[in-house]
Structures are given as structure tokens and as C-alpha cells.
Amino acid sequence: MAEAADFQGMRPSPARRWLRRTGTLFAGVPLLTGLLQWPAVSPAAAAAGSSAQAASGAGPVSVSVNSLTPSVPGEDDTVTVTGTVTNKGKQAVTDAHVGLRVGPLLNTRSGIDSVARDSDDVQGVIGPEVDDKYAQEYAELTPGVSQRFSISVPVDELNLGENGVYQVAVALSGQTAAQPWEQTLGVRRTLLPWQPDEVDTKTSTTFLWPLISTVHTMAETGSNQQQTPVLRDDDLAKEIAPGGRLDRMVALGKNLDIIWMIDPDLLASVDAMTESYEVQGSGGTTTVGSHQAAAKRWLANVQSAVKGKEVVALPFGDPDLASLAHNGTSVTGSLRHLKEATDVVVNTVEPILHVKPTTDFAWPVNGAVDPSIVKVATSAGADKVIARSDSFRETGDLSYTPSAARPIGGGTTAVVADARLSTVFQGDMTKASTSTLAVQQFLAQSLTLGLQTDRQRSVVVAPQRTPTASQAQTMAEALKAVQDGNWSESEDLTAAAKAEPDPAATTEVPAASSYPASLRKQELPRSAFEQIARTQDKLDTFKVILSDPSRVVTPFGRALNRGMSVSWRGRIAEAATYRSGVEAYLDGLLDQVKLIDKSETKLSGRSATIPVTVQNNLVQGVENLTLRLTSTNPTRLEIGGDAYEEQPVTVSGGHSQSVKFTTSANANGRATVIAQLYTQDGQKYGEPVTFDVKVTEITATVMLVIGGGVLLLVLAGFRMYTQRKRAAAREAQEQNRVEADGPQNPDAPAERPTEKPKNGPETKEPEAGSETDDPEQPSDPVSDTAPENAGPSGTGERVDR
Known about the structure:
single chain; alpha/beta; five-stranded parallel β-sheet; elongated
């Protein structure tokens, strides 16, 4: 039986333990005799050694508590503590055992903080060990090796007294070759709430359950009728997949009394994934999304989970109120985006979840507020601001934590969440030891807060915005234990905000100088809001020319809201890339409506028409556009009888339209002409097109010469006509005379007339070839206008006369 005690988990017999201690005592006698021969150690040196040991904090053995059940025990329960011990020293630990120790009652919240902070300090007060029959012993702990323990103790053996929170420590005692006496080599403290009976006045607890993600959706949409959305990545599909972060948040929250804090952008993005969607890839390419089934399943689970619960909707995209207050209000139009993000909430959440959300709460990052943040938060219609007690500190001498609601003037209420309860889950909860300590710490703080006073109070818990799956699991365990306890009851956020405020609680909003510097470093810079404003100006110019503005206004408006999201904190470069992508995509759409370039145009004559072509490569038509053609030298070239002329433009989607302008030339030379599109409100649209018009005017002298030539041509033709008519008449007379005289002897000489007519003019026959041939005259010139072409004009283009 003695050998069996050397194995792990088995305790040595009492006789064997007595023999070990007696042997240790005898072995120490020679050592003590030798020490007596050395000079005595001074008290100062002894104190120095003691301080060095105390400063060491944790001992060579690490103790972790992986579970403590039940978290809040009752009178008939048995408390079971499990965990591991690990020898991190260089020497083996022998004759070791793990025991449970109960410390004194902790009656202050700061005392609970100290226990959680110094949970492994072997020098601190631990308390007496519970009966050693509940201890677990080890013959040896080898360096670097971990061994498990499980200790179960009935509650009545813990000697718990009055209601409250007790310090419970798991301590490992043993000895090493260098220090061969029993000592505490490792410890892990935790907290045990003790409230077996229901209290007379329960604390009303409101726990916010955030359903928020990062930005996933782009401004880009497909050109089809459905406007297929484009996502930045496929990370959202991982979050809503079974076991994903958002899937766990919904599954855990469904069975808890919580307040759903929802970003409408998350719902809109997942809802878009239920139909056809695309995912952006590298190099501007996109791939077809394939997680429609997961999106539909997740939304159905959310709809089921929120039934009968209060749903608080944040502004669309969860805008960063502090960044906006500190860096954005000086940029024109920034508050307009916050108002728009608030206005679209109801039409986003209600159609998807089939519940009407509450929209009058604002939630700055970490509940940190100052006057400018409160002003911005309430500018869009919210009249309740969720702050936190480490920002909204008490300035009085209250001995208890007051209720959350604080009237801060102007009809605004600050709902101050408890900082200790809200921040306890921010650690790495993938470790069982960390998670267990967080749960016990939350329960201890909640119970101690409830025992501070008999006054009825409302306490709000506002955890981190995007808990991990393990953090959500820990939160759910702690909240379920509180809701099953005897000192707390659940309350809606709206009710907490309307609860009667404590008259002694501070109502003064913290000054701007008190805003945490660590949070300021993460804020969006002023340049971010300037870029958003610049993009909005371009959008305002673009939407007025569209036949269906909603196809552009909605996706771009929501993208600008996302550009101000809290989720960009700590990712400033990535945020800039997103905003630049939105602006670049809008620039590309703007450039789809433009003027076609023209080269030099030749103008011959006093008047002509000049065509200018407007091209629309959008899928929808454009209207409310005016095309203005301006002459930079109206004394040489007038357009429409003045320096410029304007004509309305309407172009169908995917088409081009040529607009013709009447021009008048007053002098020869070159004139520069500028074509520019304008919106209906007189704003320039797109880049202008500038080209030269070469004027070659015809003078009066040239016109006289041409007229004289034409007159000579007519006279010459008339003369030719009369001469030919006379010749034909003489030939006819000669023929008649021959026929009247009969046939003649062909050998006889021709008869000559003996007389000439008297007093008659002498008629001469025209000589052959005496008539001079006139040169051929040109006809009227043909049209010199080139066919219309939607492409750039060729060099030396001529225009219609």
C-alpha cells in the first residue's frame, strides 16, 4: 500500500507522511547545527530576501482553473474545481498536493478587481485549506509536464458565512531538492458568489447583444435589372456559416434575455447574398457567390431569435460618432451622411426581420463621450447616448453604483453602462482558464453591486462590438448564471433609459480633454471625411442627369455610410482603400457620359452648322443635360448669333446623339470653339472638348468676278444660238431655188448672178470656223459636308452650309 501512494492521484498513507516529515526534521538537525556556527543574518538582509520572494509573484508551478461548477452554488450543492498544474521550474517537485482554500469575504468591487489581477500571486493572503481529505496529491511533478486535478467539496465544508463573494484559491504545495520543506509553489485564485436566498430588491440588468460585423459590400453593382451586388470578400459567408462567429451569436442569444444591437448594413449584406451576388477578386475580377443557402438559413435564425425581444438598430454602417465629432464636423455635409444612415434604418431592418426596431439610441465606441460626441450623436435624432462608467465617471462620494440613466440636458439621456461588467469578456476566451475566471468575475461584480444598497437600480452591460465566438460563449455562460441567480432580473434598454435617475449621480458630460488618447489614435482622419464629401458632390452631379437615379444613389449612398464605419478603427489604410475604390468606381460611371473629341473644322461661307456628339455608355438614359458651344472669338465666328448657344440633350442608354449648332463667319482666320456639358442646375459635367474652326470667307470682289464670268457665258451661248439659226435658214432657201430651176448640166459652169441687190445690205456667209469656241464653265459647287460620325472627326472636317 505504501508504494501505491507514489502514483499520481493517490494520497500517501498517514504513516508514510509522518515518516517523511520526521526524516526531514532529522535531516535538518545537522544543517541547523552548521548554521548556528555562521554569523547571524541581519534583519535587513532577511527582509530583503523576503521582498525578493514576494516580488516574484507567481511560483514555479503554474495552476490553471478550467472549470468551477456550479458557478453560483446553493446550500446543498457540491463545488467541483478542475484544472491543471504545470511545473515550469528546473527542479522536480516532490511530495506535492493540490488543495482548495477559502479566503475572506470580499465586500468591495475593487477587492474583486485585485483578486482577478493578482490571481497567481503566491505571496498574497490565501486563507486556510479545506480539509486535506479533499486534496489531490502527486508523488512528483516533472519539469515541463502538466497534470490534471479535480477537487470536489460540499458547500457546507467551505464554511461560507454571510452572503457575498468569497475568494477561492487552488494552491499547490510541495518541496524541491533546493528547498526541502513544504511550501506553496503555485496558486490560482478565483471568485465564488454566495447568495443562496433571494434578495428583497433585485438589480435590473440590461445586457446588450451586438450583431455587428465589418464592412463587406462595395458600391459596385451589376448592370442587370437586379443590380447584382458585389462583396469585398467572402468573409461574411464564413461568419454566418454553421459554427461561425455570427452564427454562434444568434444561436446563443436566442435563449437569453438580451437586447439585440444590430447594424442594418449586416442585415442588408446577408439579404443581398440570398440572391445572385459576386465577390471581388484580384485585379478587378469578380467571381459568382455561392452561399445563398447559408444566408437564407442565417436570416431565418435571426428572425426567430429576435421574436419578443427588443431590437435596437444603429445607424446604417455603424458610423464612428467620435471620429465624426472630432474630425468630420468641419467638413461640409458630414452630418448629412449620419442623418441618411439613420433615416434608412427602419426600411432596412423591418422588411428583413419583420420587427420594428428602436432607433433613438446612439452608441459611441467603448462608451467614451465628450460634449462634441453627444452633440453629433443627437444630431440625427437619437436622444439617448450609451456611455460607459470609465468615461462618465462619478464625481461625488456615492458609496454605491448608481443607476444607468442620467439626464444630461436638452432632453438627452446618457445611459451609462457599467465598465467592470462590460469589459470582463475582452480577453482570450479560447483558454478555459481565462473563460472560467471571466465568468466568475462577472458574477462576483454583479452580486457585489446588488448588495451595495437596498435602492432599486438599473444596470446596463455593453460589451465589445464584435465578440469572437469564444467570447460570445463566455458571455452566454455568465449571463445565464446571472439570470438564474437570486439577485438580478432582466430589463429592456428602453426601460433602463426611462428608469428614475439617482439624484446623487453625476450628470456632467466629461470634457474633451478626458477623451482617451488611445481611442483618438484610431479615429478616421479629416481627410477621410473630405474624400467622402468629394465623392458625394460627384454623386449629386451625376444623379440629376439619370432617368433612374435610384440605381446609383442607393448603392453609393450606403457605401459612403460604410466609409465612416467604426469597424475601420485600427485599419486606416484599408479604410482609405475602400473609400478610394468607391470614388474611382463613380468616376468611371461619370466618364460613361461624355463628348466625343473633335479635330479642326473648316468653314467655307458665311454660315454653316457644326455637329457635336454626346456619347452615353450607361445602361440607362441620361437627361436634364445642356450642351453649350462657345466661340472664344465671336467677332470672327458667331454661334447662334452670339458668343455661345445652348441646346438640351437627351441620350438613350448605350447610344450617341449629335447636336448641330448654327454658326456665322464675319472674317477669315482661325477661331477656337469650346463644347461643354452642363447639368440642369448649371454645374459643369465632364471634361470640355476644344477644337479650332478655320474660316475662309468669300469677298465681294470675288463675287463680282464670278458674276461677270457667268454673264459672259450666257451671252456667248445666245450668240451661238442665233448664228446657227441663220445658217439653217440660208440652207433652206438654197435648196428651194435648186428645186425650182430644174436639173442642170453637170458639165456646164455654174451660173453667176449679173446684179447685186440695190440698196440692200450685203449678206456675207459665215466662214467655217469663224465662230470661236467658249471654254466650259463650272456648275454650282456640290455640298462639302462629311457624313456624321460618332467617332472623333477627321483632320480638316468640313461642316454643313
